[in-house]
Specification:
This protein is mostly beta strands. It starts with a strand and ends with a strand. The chain has four domains: 121 residues, no CATH class; 89 residues; 175 residues, no CATH class; 118 residues, no CATH class. Strands 1, 3, 4, 6, 9, 12, 13, 14 and 15 form a nine-stranded mixed beta sheet that branches. Helix 1 runs antiparallel to helix 2. The longest helix has 37 residues. Helices cover 15% and strands 43% of the residues. Strand 10 and strand 11 form a beta hairpin.
Length: 567
């Protein structure tokens, strides 16, 4: 006989009203965590309960449930060898064990204050790194004085200055995050302490009221949602170019962490792409009103209006330390985590709206936040390999591999550990790739393809009297040469300015080399040239423009809204 019930009441520190009255027998039932489904922002836990139920009314009590559960998510189902019904499923809070002020609690409070201060220093260091990145993305032109483009001979000095700043910022972040991990580990160790002076968080207990016509043996499952658990995707791409055809092994992994308050020991684990807190329906669209406002409105009123506030950006998900190569882990000052999972891949349970990955082996995940790395899927691919270069930004040729996601499940945005011919190259990034869609990954610099970009001519007319136009002419030549013993497919990407004002006229020079693609990735003014470069072959690309604008005005070069240089 099968029985099913969901939680109908949540009683916090109150009285339980059961169908059998106060004389109902209470049974402390043992339970074991049997299965867990981990989501990007939570988890669903299933416990197994086996109990012998006497005739009449009785109450099963399941203790030591964590405080992270959602009481309204409790669900009970199962079967029995005799008629059995569930009268109610209730929860109550079990107070924690409070310790008196002593050395342990004082130490814990000090660690938490230190943790808050350290978090502030981390945020400041991240802001500094972001500022350096934005400065670097503005291009070498922004580093010049008086609005004049920076001479190409001085670009290397700019790159060195930016590189030194980024190196110092990264080193500080590594040290600060190592200190943060040490503090968190010490706080968790104190939190696990029990007995006099120990600290124990409050939890829940579930009470299942049953009515049995006769003695019965019941097998029940208790499932519930918990906070404090998550998984983040991570990929490993290994490209081999030494065979007849390039091959790539692409592995999907999940980094699982949880601080739910209960250990998962030897459980059947699933990883799901469903987001629990994403919402269930589209937001309501209300009427939008537009009115005139005063020329000089009070600053206070503007700041007080919610419409004028910029929403804060979500923090970037940290790359799991367990996924870094061992030299990087040692540099970060973190201990190598213990990974109990082998490289056995999972079974994909793909539906129309989400995908679940069922791990083949039993998994154990501690509640102390330790990362558990699980291999989910593995694809062996034959990618399309080509060389790409953007000489206006970096005169380095990069190897790229394009492939199709042949799995039923999409590839979620995440970091990718890049390996080329057995050597770790670095970390790349992958955007969302649906099943059947095409993706491209970079596999580092190709030093056997030489690239140079030099100015052919430059002419600027400042205008001699009011009303005359100013003219700026620039012409560049990009040279590519293949030093490989085999032909390579090469794509050169460059750009021309795009005018946002009718008074500014941008004209391509007649000497320009016709591009293969006049609109790359739907970006205006971005062009590309794709061709095959034979061994020892050299090819040139000319790209120039003529800009004309009123002599009494100044022009601004910008990229995606950020000022770049003035002319």
């Amino acid at each position: 006989m099968r029985i099913v019930s969901t939680s109908r009441t949540a009683i916090i520190g109150g009285l339980l009203i059961l169908s059998g009255g106060v004389d109902a027998a209470e049974i402390d039932a043992a339970s074991r965590i049997e299965a867990v489904t981990v989501y990007p922002d939570g988890a669903s836990v299933t416990r197994r309960i086996e109990a012998e139920i006497g005739p009449g009314s009785s109450t099963l009590i399941i203790k030591d449930l964590p405080s992270s559960i959602d009481p309204l998510s409790l669900r009970v189902e199962g079967s029995a060898d005799a008629p059995l019904s569930i009268a109610s499923v209730d929860t109550r809070v079990v107070p924690g064990q409070a310790g008196t002020p002593n050395d342990v609690t004082v130490r814990l409070e000090g660690l938490r204050r230190e943790q808050m201060a350290l978090q502030g220093r981390i945020e400041a260091a991240e802001a500094r790194k972001s500022a350096i990145q934005r400065y670097a993305q503005s291009g070498p032109e922004a580093l010049a004085e008086k609005g004049k483009p920076l001479d190409t001979a001085d670009w290397s000095k700019a790159w060195i200055a930016i590189g030194d700043g980024m190196e110092a910022a990264n080193e500080r972040l590594v040290n600060l995050r190592a200190d943060a991990q040490r503090l968190e580990a010490e706080i968790q160790a104190i939190g696990r302490a029990q007995g006099p002076g120990g600290i124990r968080a409050p939890g829940f207990e579930a009470r299942i009221a049953l009515d049995a016509g006769a003695a019965a043996k019941a097998k029940l499952t208790l499932s519930y949602q918990v906070r404090g658990a998550r998984w983040t995707p991570l990929y490993d791409a290994r490209l081999v170019t030494t065979g007849d055809k390039p091959k790539m092994e692409f592995t999907r992994r999940a980094a699982i962490t949880q601080r739910t308050g209960e250990d998962w020991q030897g459980v059947a684990l699933r990883v799901s792409t469903t987001r629990l807190n994403r919402g269930t329906s589209a937001p309501a669209v209300n009427t939008s009103l537009v009115t005139l406002r005063d020329v000089n409105p009070p600053d206070v009123e503007i700041l007080a209006r919610k419409d004028f506030r910029a929403a804060p950006l979500p923090p970037a998900a940290p790359v799991p330390q367990a996924a870094l190569p061992e030299p990087l882990r040692e540099a970060a000052g973190t201990a190598k985590p213990s990974v109990a999972i082998g490289e056995n891949v999972t079974t994909i349970e793909a539906g129309s709206y989400q995908a679940n990955f069922a791990v083949a082996d039993a998994v154990s995940v501690a509640t102390d936040g330790t990362e558990k790395l699980v291999s989910l899927t593995r694809q062996t691919l034959e990618p399309d390999v080509a060389i790409k270069v953007a000489p206006s930004l970096d005169q380095t040729a990069y190897l790229e591999a394009a492939f199709v996601n042949g799995e039923e499940a999409p590839l979620l945005p995440a970091r990718v550990m890049i390996h080329r011919d057995g050597v770790f190259i670095g970390q790349g990034a992958l955007s969302f790739v649906a099943s059947g869609d095409r993706a491209t990954l970079g596999f580092g610099a190709d030093d056997a393809v030489k690239v140079s970009r030099v100015p052919v001519k430059r002419r600027e007319n400042d205008g001699g009297f009011f009303g005359q136009n100013r003219i700026d002419v620039q012409d560049y030549k990009t040279t590519t040469r293949n030093l490989h013993a085999f032909p390579v497919k090469l794509t050169v990407v460059d750009r021309l300015p795009v005018s946002e004002n009718a008074a500014i006229v941008v004209e391509p020079l007649p000497t320009n080399t016709p591009p293969t693609d006049k609109l790359v990735d739907d970006k205006r003014g971005v062009l590309s040239w794709t061709y095959e470069l034979k061994p020892s072959e050299t090819r040139e690309i000319r790209l120039g423009r003529r800009i004309r604008w009123p002599a009494d005005r100044e022009i601004i070069f910008s990229r995606e809204g950020a000022p770049q240089a003035r002319g």
